[in-house]
Design a protein that fits this description.
alpha/beta; Nucleotidyltransferase, domain 5; 5-stranded mixed β-sheet; 4-stranded antiparallel β-sheet; 12 strands; binds 2-acetamido-2-deoxy-beta-D-glucopyranose; nucleotide-binding; glycoprotein; disulfide bond; Ectonucleoside triphosphate diphosphohydrolase 1
Length: about 325
Amino acid sequence: MDEPKVTGTKPKMSSTRMILLILAFLSTLAVIALIAVAVTQNQPLPENIKYGIVLDAGSSHTNLYVYEWPAEKENDTGVVKQVEVCKVEGPGISGYSHAPEKAGPSLEQCLQQAKEVIPSAQHKETPVYLGATAGMRLLRLQNESAADKVLSSVGNTLRSAPFNFQGARIITGQEEGAYGWITINYLLGNFKQSGWKKLLHSLKSLSETSGALDLGGASTQITFVSKELTSESPENQLYFRLYGKDYQVYTHSFLCYGKDQALQQKLARDLQTVENSLLPDPCFHKGYERTINISDFFKNPCTSEKKMAMSSLKTTGK
Ligand SMILES: *[C@@H]1O[C@H](CO)[C@@H](O)[C@H](O)[C@H]1NC(C)=O
Ligand SMILES: *[C@@H]1O[C@H](CO)[C@@H](O)[C@H](O)[C@H]1NC(C)=O
Ligand SMILES: *[C@@H]1O[C@H](CO)[C@@H](O)[C@H](O)[C@H]1NC(C)=O
């Protein structure tokens, strides 16, 4: 009569062992799978990288930048690295004023490049911004509806890319000055000063930060730390708190004083005294000629004050 008891416990023991064996086998499989994933991805598992895309739409051309940074901020500060730069073919977006619908598609090729650099699983969460500068500020002064159409074309293209669209707009001259100043001082390491360097600076009464002069195509910015509490206009005064320190910064953006627009202004002034419709230009190679449509030339807000009655003009090298 004892026999059924014995045979009854035996299968119970072996089924527990079986479950343990199966569990051990499954967890071994799981470890192998994890290692395989880690090896094929060729990177340690906990690494978590974020990406961001910025399009810098200048007056003469547009650049697309891809940045990456670790998701876990190190000591409360994200260390950002530029991993890709793509120069958009053709003119700056303000150059599409006569065909605004073509401004957006001109960005496609660089967006494609960004898609290849950023892992596709992260496309949806990757923010993309476009900031336009003085070329678009001038177009807005000259023809606001054309500027709106260019921005909406660019916005449509960015919105239809697989990224997280954050906006496409014309930034102010103050923002442009501020970003330039922060960038150069970040790159020079001026925000994170060691105790000794800080002491040396205070003894020599040296400035801890550098001023920034940014010569663009259509505007130029000057930005520096100012001790004076008043400036000609409150919008030229900026306040930042960076790495726990306060900065009071003066900034001004001079529209029409970028390299290209300064030359246009000089040409407009030379035209006031031109004898016939031929103007020698000392910057041209000998024999080189260029024909300018005067009515188009004086539509530019940087030259329109110096308008004059001529229909076209040739500029030549001597
Ligand atoms: C973060 O802080 C730790 C300890 O203070 C330091 O060893 C490390 O270098 C810091 N990392 C960075 C990126 O500054
Ligand atoms: C302004 O731009 C729009 C769109 O490109 C164009 O249709 C219109 O003729 C322009 N106006 C002027 C005054 O140039
Ligand atoms: C200059 O451009 C305008 C359009 O902006 C055009 O109507 C005019 O015919 C052009 N003039 C010459 C001489 O090509």
